[in-house]
Each structure stands twice: as structure tokens, then as C-alpha cells.
Design goal:
single chain; 230 residues; six-stranded mixed sheet; six-stranded antiparallel sheet; 5 helices; 30% strand
């Protein structure tokens, strides 16, 4: 399907750009879009908080121009999936930076975010946030747990599957009401490439789960990012 352009209409080459790619040949992907209340007039939906959804049809890539100075978020599954927070106000003494992170605190979906052209983070580390396959990532860690712990997690309803050395997960879920053991499994054991516990904000966490969340803030020297839904 042909490429579509969404967001602000008065964009220029070099302005912030979020490509939203849908790799599914059959499913339409819908993203909840939010903007900070203090976004400038140049930003998409300046100051209006929750904005019109971004719709990406099967096998389509949307070019979403959020406008200069945009800070906000894109959340998969119409707001029930992984939430990607982006900050295009990146001027700093050391040069331009785009900041972004991946948040599974409220939901999870098979979605990733990173620089459009595969750039590394400013510190040289890999720059892809989120997970291409949340269920597979969780299953890779499932067998490391004893059966009692597996059963406790299944009893929460956030994980579905079977226990034992040959057991496997068939579905995983996340929301704000999830038990601490569920959060700990996804954050510390499965090591989802996203924060689930909100962390300490200032990077001085005292708990293991919060400390794990502290590392999930990325910065790159580009104004073009790509969200990929699988």
C-alpha cells in the first residue's frame, strides 16, 4: 500500500519524523498519540494532550511529522500496547539529541522503536527499544523458573501457559494493576527491552526492579525514528 503522511502539514526537510511501519500483511495497527501540554505551536496538536489516533494499514509505512519541539508518546494497540515516549527538544551543550524510551508499564505489544537508519546510541550501544515478539522473549526465560514460581505467575492471569520443564507460555499481558512478581518477571528475568517498573527517574534506584528500569532511556543524534509493528 502507498505511503501516507500524517501529523503536522507545515513540515520541512530535516524536521522531526517518526516513520510508523506495519509489517503485518493482514492487520491494521492503530497508535494512540499524546502530546505534552507545554508543546509549542509548531508541534502536532500543541497543548491538547490526547490526539487523533495514527492508523497504519497492513504492509504500510506512515510518515508521521510531529513538528519541531514535540514531546509526546505513541502507544500501540490503540493505547493498550507498548508506549514509546519521544522528545524532540534535544538541543544540548554537547549537540543535538533525540531522547526516547519504551514503556510496558501499561501494556505490551510486538513493537519496536529506534533510529530510522540503524544508528547506535550516542554511547555506542544498541538503540532498538521494545520487543519484536514479547511472547518469545518471555518464553526464553520461562524454563529458568521452578514450577512453584511458574504456577504463582500463571495464577495472576497475566501469563497463560503450562508449568514444568516442558511447559511453555501461550500469552502474556501487562497493565498498571499487575502484581509485583509479574513486573519482576518481565523486567528482571525475561529482561524485556523496555521499562515496566517506572524506575527512580534520577537513576538512583534502591530496588532491583527500579534499578533495571533506570537504564531504559535512549538518546541518538538524529531527528528520524522508526516504530515497527509486527
Amino acid at each position: 500500500m502507498a505511503q501516507d503522511v500524517q501529523g503536522v502539514s507545515n513540515y520541512s526537510p530535516g524536521d522531526p519524523l517518526v516513520n510508523i511501519k506495519n509489517t503485518s500483511p493482514t492487520e491494521t495497527h492503530v497508535y494512540k498519540v499524546e502530546g505534552n501540554a507545554d508543546n509549542p505551536p509548531s508541534a502536532y496538536g500543541a497543548g491538547s494532550g490526547s490526539l487523533p489516533m495514527a492508523t497504519v494499514f497492513p504492509s504500510q509505512t506512515v510518515q508521521f511529522y510531529p513538528g519541531t519541539g514535540f514531546i509526546g508518546a505513541f502507544t500501540g494497540l490503540s493505547g493498550a500496547g507498548t508506549r514509546f515516549e519521544v522528545n524532540f527538544r534535544g538541543d544540548s551543550p554537547g549537540g543535538y539529541k533525540t531522547w526516547y524510551n519504551s514503556d510496558m508499564e501499561f501494556g505490551m505489544s510486538d513493537t519496536t522503536l529506534g533510529p530510522a537508519h540503524g544508528d547506535k546510541q550516542i554511547n555506542g550501544l544498541d538503540s532498538l527499544a521494545g520487543e519484536q515478539d514479547c511472547l518469545a522473549k518471555a518464553n526464553s526465560a520461562w524454563g529458568t523458573l521452578d514450577e512453584a514460581t511458574q504456577q504463582q505467575l500463571l495464577d495472576t492471569g497475566y501469563l497463560e501457559g503450562s508449568v514444568g520443564s516442558n511447559g511453555a507460555l501461550t500469552a502474556v499481558h501487562m497493565d498498571k494493576q499487575a502484581d509485583e512478581n509479574v513486573v519482576s518477571f518481565f523486567q528482571n528475568v525475561a529482561e524485556m527491552n523496555s521499562y515496566i517498573h517506572p524506575g527512580s527517574v534520577v537513576g538512583k534506584a534502591t530496588s532491583r526492579t527500579a534499578a533495571a528500569a533506570d537504564k531504559f532511556s535512549w538518546s541518538v543524534e538524529t531527528k528520524e525514528l522508526t516504530i515497527t509493528g509486527y
